[in-house]
Design a protein that fits this description.
Layout (H helix, E strand, L loop, with lengths): L9 H17 L3 E6 L5 E6 L7 H15 L3 E8 L7 H4 L5 E2 L10 E5 L23 E7 L6 H14 L3 E7 L6 H6 L9 H8 L11 E2 L9 E5 L12 H5 L11 H17 L9 E6 L5 H10 L2 E6 L3 H16 L3 H4 L3 E8 L7 H16 L5 E2 L5 E2 L30 E4 L19 H19 L14
Parallel strand pairs: 1-5, 2-3, 6-10, 6-11, 7-9, 7-10, 11-12, 12-15
Antiparallel strand pairs: 1-2, 4-5, 8-9, 13-14
Helix pairs in contact: 1-2, 4-13, 6-8, 8-9, 10-12
Length: 471
Amino acid sequence: MTADDFPVRFDSSRPIAFGIARDVAEEGYDVVLVRDVLGRFTLIVDDDGKGVDAGQHDRWSATLHDRLGPYCGKRRVLLKSRMFSADALLRSPRAINAPDGSTSVGSVRFLDNTVVGEGWTQVSTPSAPKLGPRTHRTALYGFKGGVGRTTATSVLARSLADTGKIVLVIDLDLESPGIGPLLLGTGRLCRHGVVDHLVEAALGNEEGLEIVTRSGYEPRNRGELWIAPARGAGDGTPNAYVDKLNRVYADSPGASFADRLEATVRACEEAVEKGDSGRRPDVVLLDSRAGIHDVAAVTISRLCDLALLFGADNAQTWSGYRDLFDAWAASGQGPDIRHKLRMVASMVPDSVHHPMEIYLRSFRLNSYDCFSTLYDEVMAEGTAEDPQRSDSGEGTTGGIPFAPSPEDDSAPHHPVPILFEPGLVGMNVPDSPQWQERVFVRAAYLEFLATVVPLVLADPVDGNDDEEETG
């Protein structure tokens, strides 16, 4: 211990606690490190059939106290043999394997209790339906707002619908709804929205809500374009949107916010299938809100097959994404999340003084630097070490390391460009009919659509294109 260890802050407490836990595991015990909502650690030790003498217990307890300071829990070390329901913690499905935590004789798992944001550490992919074609879900997300994410969602939705797909766009930017007016056109806004479903479903009162509507745009090739707005038009009574919004993030009995949001997305898909054509969505686009927020956490980590990450090449973008990627890596989610991700370089300049090629080269290198924390490390002799799952090979693709080069144009870090178009800045959609048909708009999104549409329709596991036409 050195003078630099004090005072122990939040950031330094975690590696200290994991080091202590690994030392205990080296003595032959499986342990779970539990962090409470204030950041304090308690060590749960599985002493079944092994026993722990008083000397060991006191030594572990003193080490936690001396090294963690204010981040040591009031109950420092708990033994399974002395707990009433230890398995609830030791076998908790919320606990994750600690990166670099396993030893040859004992294991370390980590159970983090947070007030918000737990969704970032619970990565999964939507399951395929037992019958019928798969609905492809894509999230569109930007760490910072104002990067053209919602406009790109609108352009992508119309393009997919024009190929004959049934497309549903769900507005999950609950604090700043916006996709509805961009896509509605001459259509009629439905009476209710995503926020209404979240509020009513918490009371089992969601039956009969009108949460989706057809866009006024008529796609080619028998495609359909549907919208699930965050805010509905209402039913004649004052729309208490702010009051409802203040309640949507609460966990309800038997269902977390993440569970309820997933149920709402599923309800929107079912509502489309109950429409006049009776066809279920081929594609769902989730317009997520910006920032490190619970809606974005659930949307990217749990609800989608593919997440398009929007950004501009500036310090704010990379600082934010670096924090996010570091959190995924630290929680052992890197191998699960990286296959879902793809960067989008939005508002790319292209002029004599600011050539697109130079901008995209800088973007790609900065993006690669951020993504490196999620990639496997390739050793000199050609083998790979996954810093999180190196022993089992789990998380690699068929045992092959996931370590794309900076120039790999199919890698998650490689940017898909959208050109900056000043004509779109401050555009008032109702005063700009057929705006997506303008030549300058088509030019700005040409490469974006050519690259992203196949990604949206690809199988989330093996990357095979979906050849089935629904039109």
